[in-house]
From TrEMBL:
Domain Trichohyalin-plectin-homology: 147-484
GO cellular component: axonemal microtubule
Name of the protein: Coiled-coil domain containing 173
Alphabetical keyword list: Coiled coil
Lineage: Eukaryota, Metazoa, Chordata, Craniata, Vertebrata
Entries under Pfam families matching the protein: TPH
Coiled coil: 98-135, 182-244, 300-369, 414-449
Disordered: region residues: 1-35
């Protein structure tokens, strides 16, 4: 038991041998703890001692996976650290792809920022420009609207008239100095005409010399053409001789061809005659064959006629037999029909007798039925009379009840009418109060509107005064500018007078500062035109009895 309980000493020293002391480093070599590190009460002799290789094998088999994982983790961490160090070192290198890309991105970012700033600046300038344009357009619109005013239009018309008068004065001054100017112009034109004549003479001499040179060129060309014509004649003569020689050769060739064709024609005629003879022989043979075939056809046709004759005789025999059979059948049918008619007559007589018996029976039943119906009608008449009397009695009772109901309804209607009249009277009283209140409100509203209209008229008068002041300033500027260059500025002074309307009377402050020539005699004071017209006098002359002869001539009475 003791030996079993004690651990076995594998690969240890044997019992009875003396153990030599081992140095301290021996324990470290075999990973054996020192006796000082052993727990109390543990005998070193009873401890199993393993070799280093076995111990390493056991330890590797136990924690190999953890150690491999730790080693892989350490290697991965080392690679990551090395990668980070490499990135930190390479980050600032300018000659790498990443560095170039980073530099390009940085440059692109700076360029985009610069472009964005430029766009913002352009947008700001565009906004300022558009604002200036809008302001200018508004000013132009205001100016145009101001120029569309009637008084400004009148001032502009006067300005145009002033310009016209100024131009007229200038034309008058120009007309005074016109003769001297025309004299100078005539002298200048005379000098120009003499120069033109000299130039034309020079051009005529130049044209003459050109024509002489052209004539010489034409003579030389004529000589060249004559020489060329002689050469052409010689060439044509040579060509004619050559053509004659070729014509003779052609005729000889044609003659040979004709002789050859004649020989071929004779040969063809001979062959045709032989062919015609052969055709006659073939035709005779074919006629003989045709005759033999016709004989066969005639024999066949004759046999066919004989067969048709036999067929007709057989059909006639068959028809005769059929007719005999038909006659026998007809006689037999006649006998049968005769017997059938006799049976039908007997059956009809029996049916007639039965029908008469039934009719007598039905007539008897009908009489009995009529008697029963008359009895029921009498009973029904009595019951109807009784019911009618009861309905009349009930109707009288209902009439009394309806009369009472009508009387009650009349009473209720009278009470309702009375209430309705009272309610209508109350409504009229309320309506009268409402109308009085509305009249008061309307009067107050009219007073308010009148006061608002007065205020509006006052404001309008102030605005008219401001516009008048503005117009006078503008008119004074125009008059000052025109007085420096023009002498007659009366139209401008007339158009710049105070008050609208271009009239000749006083200014009406109550009517918005207008200056009319005439006013209608009504509450509106509408301005009338200030121009004169001769239409009234013309109509008066037409309607007055003047010279009768003129009237006759005007109407066409000229006898």
């Amino acid at each position: 038991m003791d030996a079993a309980a004690r651990p076995a000493a594998l690969y240890g020293r044997r019992k009875g041998q003396r153990r030599e002391p081992t140095p301290a480093n021996g324990l470290e070599e075999y990973n054996v703890p020192d006796s000082s590190l052993l727990p109390n009460g543990v005998d070193l002799r009873q401890v199993t001692v393993l070799p280093k290789a076995e111990w390493v094998r056991i330890r590797d088999s136990v924690d190999s996976a953890a150690r491999e994982a730790a080693q892989i983790h350490a290697e991965r961490k080392e690679r990551e650290d090395m990668h980070f160090r490499s990135k930190a070192v390479v980050k600032n290198w300018p000659n790498t792809i990443a560095g170039q890309a980073q530099r390009k991105l940085k440059a692109k970012k700076l360029r985009e920022e610069k472009e964005e700033e430029e766009r913002k600046r352009l947008d700001l300038e565009e906004a300022q420009f558009q604002a200036a344009k809008r302001k200018e357009a508004i000013e132009q619109a205001k100016t145009y609207q101001y120029y569309q005013n009637e008084r400004v239009k009148g001032l502009h018309k006067a300005l145009l008239l002033t310009e016209v008068l100024k131009e007229r004065d200038a034309q008058i001054e120009f007309k005074k100095t016109k003769p001297d100017i025309y004299k100078k112009k005539e002298e200048e034109m005379e000098r120009e005409r003499e120069k033109a004549i000299l130039k034309e003479q020079e051009k005529a001499y130049e044209r003459y010399m050109n024509r002489q040179a052209l004539c010489r060129d034409h003579l030389e060309q004529i000589k060249e053409h004559k020489h060329q014509a002689e050469l052409d004649k010689l060439e044509a003569k040579k060509e004619g001789e050559e053509i004659q020689r070729l014509t003779k050769l052609y005729k000889l060739e044609v003659q040979r061809e004709n002789e050859k064709k004649l020989e071929e024609k004779l040969e063809h005629r001979r062959m045709h005659c032989a062919h015609v003879a052969d055709q006659d022989i073939l035709k005779a043979v074919q006629e003989q064959k045709q005759e033999e075939e016709n004989d066969k056809i005639r024999a066949h046709f004759k046999a066919k006629q004989n067969m048709a004759k036999l067929r007709r005789e057989k059909e006639a025999e068959m028809n005769r037999l059929m007719q005999e059979h038909r006659d026998i059948t007809t006689n037999r049918l006649v006998e049968q029909m005769k017997q059938t008619f006799e049976k039908i007559d007997e059956r009809v007589a029996r049916d007639v007798a039965e029908r008469e018996a039934e009719w007598e029976k039905e007539l008897k039943e009908k009489d009995e039925k009529n008697k029963a119906e008359l009895k029921s009608i009498a009973e029904h008449r009595a019951s109807v009379i009784k019911m009618k009397e009861e309905r009349e009695r009930e109707a009288r009772l209902e009439g009394k009840e309806k009369l009472l109901e009508l009387m009650e309804a009349d009473r209720i209607y009278l009470e309702m009418e009375k209430d309705k009249k009272q309610r209508h009277r109350n409504e009229n009283i309320n309506m009268q109060k409402t109308q009085i209140q509305q009249m008061a409100e309307k009067r107050a509203k009219e007073q308010h509107e009148k006061q608002a209209e007065l205020d509006y008229e006052a404001e309008k008068e102030v605005i008219a005064m401001c516009k008048e002041q503005e117009f006078q300033e503008y008119a004074n500027q125009v008059i000052d500018s025109e007085s420096k260059t023009a002498q007659n500025i009366y139209p401008l002074l007339k158009a710049a007078k105070e008050g609208a309307g271009a009239g000749h009377g006083p200014v009406y402050r109550e009517r918005g500062g207008i200056r009319p020539s005439y006013q209608a005699r009504d509450i509106n004071g509408t301005q009338l035109p200030s121009y004169n017209c001769n239409t009234t006098e013309e109509i008066k002359e037409l309607n007055t009895n003047g010279n009768i002869q003129q009237a006759k001539g005007r109407l066409g009475f000229t006898w």
